[in-house]
Amino acid sequence: MSGTAIRTAEVLVSSPGRNFVTLRIVTQDGVEGLGDATLNGRELSVASYLTDHVVPLLIGRDAHTIEDTWQFLYRSAYWRRGPVTMAAIAAVDVALWDIKAKLAGMPLYQLLGGASRRGIMAYGHASGRDVPELLDSIRQHLDEGFRSIRVQTAVPGITAVYGVAAQPSSSGRYDYEPAQRAPLPAEEDWDTRAYLRHIPRVFEAVRNEFGPELPLLHDGHHRMTPIQAARLGKDLEPYDLFWLEDCTPAENQDALRLVRQHTTTPLAIGEVFNTVWDYQTLIREQLIDYVRSAVTHTGGITALRRILDYAAQYQIKSGIHGPTDISPVGMAAALHLDLAIHNFGIQEYMKHSATTDEVFRTSFTFADGHLHPGHEPGLGVTYDDDAASRHPYQAAYLPFNRLKDGTVHDW
What we know:
Radius of gyration: 21 Å
Low-confidence stretches: 167-174
Shape: globular
Mean pLDDT: 95
Number of strands: 18
Number of helices: 13
Distance between the termini: 49 Å
């Protein structure tokens, strides 16, 4: 075998603060590449897919053949798409790009065409149980260097609301981590009418406090019907949002036509999407403004680059998914892609815990509201096996919603 043939491929599952699945590929010459395969609340499904079905196919393949390997893994299984399959393919793809860039002796973004900007604008997650606490959270994020802020808040009459970090967490951390370490998923409540009444008043208070210049974002997290989403988008127009995210479940891409007809608030969609087919109508008809997919869940750098190139034809920009359920490996991959593409929009960024940073050593930096992947060859991430061994997998589930009458609702 040549020196760039794949010698080993190992699936690493650890839980330094939360669960991560990492793929490590090593060539015959000992060059190592890492890929993120984390699927929040369903991590072991991807670990099994990789271990039992993908790893045996990789041994002996030339690590340089990224495109051929991607097509082989996507087409040869017959059963295509879906989050488990695409997260597994993404892990392989990113690991191979890591190897190729290390062999080239340059940071990955150089192989993707070089830097298109000096830094990557990032937004942080501010939240509060009431408006005063929210305003304090925004001030804290500004003090930490963020220059763009996502705004989430509790809603009167609802016990638990997605995105509100001040609510109880099994990890004991302030920054919002919805996956709870428990044998069964937590049940939360929801009332759309109460939410629609409350949120415009929140953004009015934020704009009154921080003025018109601060970029503000909000995540509806799929919980509205198209007409409800249209109403919220219109009600928020006076507050000039950078975007309204996941305003309605977008599996039915045609539903976004109704939202678009009624509001000029920019729309971001796609963190649960896995392939370009999920975006086909949305991009072609310009029904969204930002692509929200993660490198980790969308088939890797190879696949997401294609989606963003397609989006660029319609002046649609990137907004790559980047909460803490994307490992530092997945975050680094996103940053290299962010730096290289022309139609970059903004990057989501939640800082990982100190425990996570002990397992994943990274070269990327954050200063004055901007991220940079660093200048080390490859992704710029190393995996500490000794540190990881101290944090074994623990079962964790995302919550689910019920309405007041007990009906299961989109969370």
